[in-house]
Please model this.
Amino acid sequence: MSKWENGVAASRIAGARWQKATASDAKNDCVEVARIGEDEIAVRNSRHPDGPALIYTRAEWEAFTDGASKGEFSNMLV
Model:
């Protein structure tokens, strides 16, 4: 069980090292991710760094990134 709950203020995740995609623009229109613990990934909106973070298990994150790398979510942009 996670010690973090979805919606926790991202600023409350001590020691998180947030990573932003190099494709983000000057307005910070991007999401940032941080590995927290051994088996969890936190995601936040880069425009609201103190706002809520969504917490995913390693398996959930791997499934998402695998699908994204295969273009399975490309229809979200049309």
